[in-house]
Amino acid sequence: APSDNNLSLYIQEFERFNVTDVVRVCDPTYHIEPLEERGMKDWVFGDGEAPPTQIVNDWLDLVQKRFGEIVSDEERPTIACHCVAGLGRAPVLVAIALIESGMSALDAIVYIRERRRGAINNRQLKYIETYKRRSKTGKCIIC
């Protein structure tokens, strides 16, 4: 997770990858002021847990808002989502977005674990496996 000491490095990367929103799902490890212009969201939920319904709703609203109507690759937004180690809370939200975009739960888990070895614990895995897609279109908005 970013800290006040290394936040400037993260901000440089956010600029490089056109990050429009930063979603923090863990307890604060840095001051948010430098990120307020990047649409900082503080959606904390328990380590090793599945996200509460309200956070899932807020997450899906944000994903739809950012990726629902992409005009061109040059304008393609990026959402940075992080927890402490990047192995639990953030990957669960990414899995939900992938499932909503049309991936199966298993494919979403494999996709994430290929990029973040050790991601998603057993409790979170069960949550993802039983997650029901809300969107009927299943268009891939992320991949």
From TrEMBL:
<comment type="similarity">
    <text>Belongs to the protein-tyrosine phosphatase family.</text>
</comment>
<dbReference type="InterPro" id="IPR020422">
    <property type="entry name" value="TYR_PHOSPHATASE_DUAL_dom"/>
</dbReference>
<keyword id="KW-0636">Prenylation</keyword>
<dbReference type="InterPro" id="IPR029021">
    <property type="entry name" value="Prot-tyrosine_phosphatase-like"/>
</dbReference>
<feature type="domain" description="Tyrosine-protein phosphatase">
    <location>
        <begin position="1"/>
        <end position="140"/>
    </location>
</feature>
<dbReference type="GO" id="GO:0004725">
    <property type="term" value="F:protein tyrosine phosphatase activity"/>
</dbReference>
<keyword id="KW-0378">Hydrolase</keyword>
<protein>
    <recommendedName>
        <fullName>protein-tyrosine-phosphatase</fullName>
        <ecNumber>3.1.3.48</ecNumber>
    </recommendedName>
</protein>
<keyword id="KW-0904">Protein phosphatase</keyword>
<feature type="domain" description="Tyrosine specific protein phosphatases">
    <location>
        <begin position="57"/>
        <end position="127"/>
    </location>
</feature>
<keyword id="KW-0449">Lipoprotein</keyword>
<dbReference type="InterPro" id="IPR050561">
    <property type="entry name" value="PTP"/>
</dbReference>
<dbReference type="GO" id="GO:0005737">
    <property type="term" value="C:cytoplasm"/>
</dbReference>
<keyword id="KW-0488">Methylation</keyword>
<dbReference type="InterPro" id="IPR003595">
    <property type="entry name" value="Tyr_Pase_cat"/>
</dbReference>
<dbReference type="InterPro" id="IPR000387">
    <property type="entry name" value="Tyr_Pase_dom"/>
</dbReference>
<keyword id="KW-1015">Disulfide bond</keyword>
